[in-house]
Every structure is written in structure tokens, then in C-alpha cells.
Amino acid sequence: xxRPAEARIELDYEDISAQGESTYxxxxxxxxxxxxxxxxSFAGASDRLFFIDGPGGSGKAYLYNTLYNILDGRxxxxxxxxxxxxxxxxxxxxxxxxxxxxxxxxxxLYLKDGAIVTLLRNLDITNGLCNGTRxxxxxxxxxxxxxxxxxxxxxxxFVLIPxxxxxxxxxxxxxxxxxxxxxQLAFAITINKSQGQASSKxxxx
Length: 205
Ligand SMILES: Nc1ncnc2c1ncn2[C@@H]1O[C@H](COP(=O)(O)OP(=O)(O)OP(=O)(O)O)[C@@H](O)[C@H]1O
Fold this sequence. Notes:
Residues 94-138 form the DNA helicase Pif1-like 2B domain. Belongs to the helicase family. GO terms for molecular function: 5'-3' DNA helicase activity; ATP binding; hydrolase activity. It is an enzyme of class 5 (isomerase). It is a single chain. By secondary structure, this protein is of the alpha+beta class. Helix content is 24%, strand content 17%. The protein contains five helices and seven strands; from the N terminus they run ααααβββββββα. Strands 4-3-2-1-7 form a five-stranded antiparallel sheet, with no helix packed on it. A two-stranded antiparallel ribbon has the order 5-6. α1 packs antiparallel against α3 and α2 (29-41) runs parallel beside α3 (60-73). It is globular. The relative contact order is 0.14. The structure holds adenosine-5'-triphosphate. Adenosine-5'-triphosphate binds next to α3. Adenosine-5'-triphosphate binds at residues 26-28, 31, 54, 56-62.
């Protein structure tokens, strides 16, 4: 593990609040209605759960970021700050092994010939090796995986995937590095990952 040089991140809450306000004023009617309802719920005593629904590009992420900045500006969102060097002793190997942050391959990767995997990072975009590319395992070595493209322009072509250092420093309060093949098994994919893929057959669960 590499600890970030600056363990304590100083947040400028006034700046965050100002960002929230600047994106609040251009909100359209529906966005404003949702933001106001969620903000009002903070005054209530009971927990509430909100679902924001709308077509692609209708401004859900914009609304979410506005809300986040307003609430963060009011210091209503928890933050994890690691400012004590002693904290490191709590990060046992077992704990680190158990972590699989989004986009990070698992500590123990169980594969077999013929298994379908999805690539977790952009290795070589011009040659079709991007985050989300689906491959079929053909051979397994200590340092490389021999794979075939499952779909796309290079369907059926052979490619070698190297073992790489995979880093995660955004989702965790510390920086983690794992040396592993940047793939994970993909018996199925989420609807988000499937966007933009041209598949001739599809099974929906
Ligand atoms: N009220 C607004 N004022 C100015 N720009 C906006 C507003 N709402 C949304 N946008 C802009 O419209 C674009 C699409 O919005 P956004 O990404 O939030 O949509 P979305 O509903 O989350 O889309 P998707 O479901 O495809 O992820 C973004 O560039 C965003 O900055």
C-alpha cells in the first residue's frame, strides 16, 4: 500500500457550497422540484429514500452533483480522513485481500479455458483492448493470459493480456495496488456495461 503524501485533505466548504448554488439556479422545473423535495426531507425526523428516474441525458447526474455539493457544503455528508499514521495497523492483509473496489480485479482470480472475461481497464484502445472488452480465455500463464476477442471487429483474434499493477485511490481512504490480470469473469454484464456493444443475441435477466 502506498499512503497518499497528503493524508488529510482540507475541504473548502464555502467553495463547495458556492458550486452547489451556481448549479442550483439553472435547474429546470423537474430538477428543482426533486432537489427541493430531497433537501426538505433533511428537516424531517425519519429517513427517506428517493429514486430519480428520467431518460438518458435529462440531467440526473447534474441534479445529483448539485445536491451533493449543497449537502456537502452544509457538512451533511460523512468523510473519511486518515490523519493518524497508527491507522495503518488496522489494514490487515486479510482485510486488503477481501476488498475488491469497482474496477479492480479480485485478489484471487479463478479462471479456466473457455471462460468469458471482461477487461477492467484500457490497455490498448486503438487495438480494441478497452475497459469492458469481452475476451475468451484460451491459455493461462504466470505472466500472461492468452485470450480471443468475443465480439467486435477483432472477433476471434488472439491477444495476450499481461499481469499489471492495478491501482485504486479514489474509492478508498488509502491507495491500494494489486498485481493481477486486469480481468474479471463475465458470465453476465450489467445494462450499463452493455451500452454501445453490438451483440447478435441477448439474454435478459
Ligand atoms: N439544468 C441544467 N443546466 C445546464 N446544463 C444541464 C442541466 N441539466 C443537465 N445539464 C447538462 O446536460 C447534460 C446531460 O445531463 P446529465 O449527464 O446530468 O444527464 P443524465 O440524466 O445523468 O444522463 P444519463 O442517464 O445518460 O447518464 C450534461 O452535460 C449536463 O451538464
